[in-house]
Amino acid sequence: MMELTGSIKKDSKTKQLLDSMDLERERGITIKLKAIRMNYVYKDEAYQLNLIDTPGHVDFGYEVSRSLAACEGAILVVDASQGVQAQTIVNLEKAKAEGLKIIPVVNKIDLPSAQVESCALELIDLGFKESDVYYTSGKTGHGVEDLINGIIENVPAPIENENDKGVPKALVFDSFFDDYRGVIVFVRVLSGNFKSTDFVKFVAARSESKIVDIGFLSPTEKKVESISYGEVGFIATGLKHIEDARVGDTATISGETPTPIPGYKVPIPVVFLSFYPDDSSEYLKLREAMERLSLNDAAFSFEPESIGSIGKGFRCGFLGLLHADIIRERVEREFGISVITTSPSVRYLVTTTQGLEMEIKSAAEFPDITTIAKTKEPWANLSVYTPVSYMSEIMNLCKERRAIFLETVQLDTKRVKISYEIPLIELIIDFYDKLKSMSSGYASIDYTLIDYRESLVSKMDILIGGDIVAPLSTLVQRQNAETEGKRIVAKLKSIMPRQQFAISIQAAVGGKILAREDVSAFRKDVTGYLYGGDVTRKMKLLEKQKRGKKRLKRFGNIDIPQDVFWKVMER
Fold first, then answer.
1. Which of 1, 189, 484, 545 qualifies as a cystine partner to 170, CB 3.0-4.6 A?
2. Burial degree of 291 (CB within 10 A; 0-12, 13-18, 19+)
């Protein structure tokens, strides 16, 4: 589409042009959305098309919902070799809820494995007419011009709201921080226009600043004097804190007070884990990395934390484990800092015997069990979208994770939507990966937090060589403590490197050992060079080795590789 509209040259050799981060290209996922403006002439009239490319993973669902709120239409792209997938249905339901005009497209029709007819039938099952479906190939360009013409004919042009006519008002659907121009927001202008000489104001954040730059992406930055209603563009605000212009806020100009755009909410971190520098001398460097990443990611939060055995670090909040993994990898790649990560947790509410209510985000903060009156954990409403053939396995998985079944809805002849209520901790730790694995990638999920419910929670310590390893401490359900302890020590045994001496790995709750595994020592052949002679020579050498191993066990250091802390999360 960008080639046909002249936004980029046809001989451009850049693959995955809108996925600018190395991580996005390597993993084949979109992490940050992109908003591109394209100009096109159809039937001798000039049209402006604004395209938003959004992430698809459930961790970034908030970005998708805000992007849909900025649009009049959505292109539903289906891979001809894979058919309609569950995540497609999740986002289709969101687009329908926003009242958008949806254009179904079967893409990659040039592939030898393409099943064009069956994909079209799947789209018809979802309620589309056969005449509505477009067939394209992003590689060869086949059918793309017809698609652009179809967008112009079918997607309605933006209409300025009568109540706010002439009053500058825009929806912020993305923001990031620039060292020289401060916070830069991407906006969809709903009424009026914003000029480069104006002072921009954000309604929810109650902040305002002189506009530094104004323009749009095509796909590189193009600066203009103003952007008007119906257009999508960026405003460089000069603000120094990302909190002053968050995604979902309403932008206007100084002196105006338009009605805020409904649906604004701050993205709330749901998963918490700590980052500690592998080398304690890099603490200040890690702090700088945290600050820089939080400037470009409004959903990422952090606060200083200290655990006696490993020193100073940061307690961080994320939208999900994929979000956490991406931040961890960015810290290591972009800033060259090797980090230790603790076990993931959610936000628990603990009431003490003295009536004090506390928010607990990590095992390190968990108070002594004798001082706790009750503990509450967060629950979520979970919707699983899956082909019927995988339904039985998925229901068993949900049952294992303490989920409460609500209902099953038949979406079409092949797919169902299963609804559950589930504890959030069961959902965030590798549930999505397990689901994808057992459904061959065809199932997907959507979830929303609902409330806090009482549960029995205990802190489990992991001891390696008799010493508590604080980053591995985790919060578990009391009734599942023994099972979880056995799983963790068995996992550690399989991934811990062997040493010159035997290592014991134990799981304990309140001083009581629940599970144990031993990693056997390397055995060096100290008698290999002997040839004949008295057997006592051999026995002396073996005794010497035995004494050495005993001494090592008392004084030797156990080297725990950094990736052990991340791998132990996988069930």
1. 189
2. exposed
